[in-house]
Amino acid sequence: MRRSPISIAIPLISLFAGILACQVVQLEGPARLSPQNADEFIERGNAYFDAGDLDLAISDFSQAIQLEPDFAEAYYNRANTYKAKGELDRAIRDYDQAIKLNPDFLKAYINRGLVHAHNGDPNRAIHDYDRAIQLDPDYADTYFNRGISYVAIGELDRAIRDYEQVLQLEPEAADAFYNRGLAYFAKGEPDLAIRDFDRAIQLEPNAADAYTSRGLAYASQGDQERAIDDYDRAIELNPNLVIAYINRGEAFQAKGDVERALRDFERAIRDLNRTLQINSNDAAAYNNRGYAYYAMGDLEQAISDINHSIQLAPAVADAYFNRGIIFNDKGEREYAIADFQKVLELCANSPLCQEARQELEVPVVK
Prior knowledge:
globular
């Protein structure tokens, strides 16, 4: 079974980094108690946002809009607050209005792009990032996030070029080396991926995800010993990194060490059980636990978990792909074909889509 992209995390910049924080003003006296104009409502709204009182922040930003309907910053700040609450449709509407009022509003394009990407619409995200780059071609974060969206649509060479642009602007950006490594790995170039993971680890020696991803690249080359060493280090840095246990279990399995493999798969399942006790709507946890059950040979439980994942997140192509692989192993080719075709509907031209096409072309050996 293919590992879920959920398990190999691609980092995103914080939606609010350097944006709202610099606007927060600790008001005193009458302005805090009773704002008299739109600017004062914005200032108090920012203070509420900083304190985590999102509903009060929205109320103040709305008051500012009522007083000055053409106040682009008020719509923008309210959009950021809706995003923080998870009300993404409202956030997009406010970003739309902010941009309508100020067509050169750089951060509104960037944040709207982030929301589109979060909503699973990488093409719209790219459109916003393109405009942001026109407005400020030296802002590295925009290239970084556009690279993530290019990966999502399978444009790996464009993603790599964007990460290279980040590195021209910020030569020691560990996350850009890491993401470029992921793109190279997705292209089937593990040597280049390992080189980038090496550099990411050199810059951030405690980055557990980089060790996990480098281990996966080593494993793809058949170097299970180095892979296990990297998974060991990742687990040492983050004992709760479930994917490191799953990957290490696979490496042990490839070496014929079934006992250690089972221990790692069982540990991953225990951790995912705890995750699901805290949040029973975590689609990624069901998908990854399904993978662990599959690795242990429990195909029925694997399908049950992935079914739950699909019910919770029906637009995530990875779960259909994984279920299709299991159906293939069960000899239920008709169901597998339906899942791979669903992947093609959902994933545009991504590497996962290419893998699904390959699965549709390969006959099952019984």
